[in-house]
Amino acid sequence: QLQLVESGGGLVQPGGSLRLSCAASGFTLNYYGIGWFRQAPGKEREGVSCISSGDGSTYYADSVKGRFTISRGNAGNTAYLQMNNLKPEDTAVYYCAVRRITTAQTMCLVTSAHVWGQGTQVTVSS
């Protein structure tokens, strides 16, 4: 059984911060690439940040570089997305996803084999 549960979303003011968490149930993340994606109403799903299954290389969308950081938890069954200096255009449903053995770039750009979490809402508004 492969299951992912996101948490940490909410309502924040512009310039604020949130940390999203992704918890794996039934498996560990050691051999999986991990990605954070987002989708706003009427827009396509976007790969925000991903990390490879091997050497830990990372990929970031241009819109979040310098503001967001993806990381693995020490226990091997968690992943995080630290979001700083949030902007209204960051408002979306954020999804965690995993795929066995992949590069960071492929994780964010090719999603046909991904296992997905249920999503968590992030709203940035004054």
Characterise the protein shown here:
It is built from one helix and eleven strands; from the N terminus they run E-E-E-E-E-E-E-E-E-H-E-E. The longest helix is centred in the last third of the chain and has 6 residues, at 104-109. Strand 5 and strand 6 form a beta hairpin. It is globular, with a radius of gyration of 13 Å. The chain is 5% helix and 48% strand. Strands 2, 4, 5, 6, 9, 10 and 11 form a seven-stranded mixed beta sheet that branches. A four-stranded antiparallel beta sheet has the order 1-3-8-7, with no helix packed on it. The chain has 126 residues and is mainly beta. It has one helix spanning 104-109, and strands spanning 3-7, 10-12, 18-25, 32-39, 46-51, 58-60, 68-72, 78-83, 92-100, 115-116, 120-124.
| Beta-strand residue percentage | over 45%
* Low-pLDDT sequence parts: none
**Overall mean pLDDT score?**
95
Rg computed from alpha carbons, rounded to a whole number of angstroms = 13 Å
State the share of residues found in helices, binned by percent.
under 10%
Q: What's the number of extended β-strand segments?
A: 11
In whole angstroms, how far apart are the ends?
A: 41 Å
Specify the overall morphology. globular
Which class best fits the helix and strand makeup?
Answer: mainly beta
- Oligomer classification: single chain
Largest sheet: 7 strands, mixed
- From N to C, what is the helix and strand string? EEEEEEEEEHEE
Count of runs of 4 or more consecutive helical residues = 1
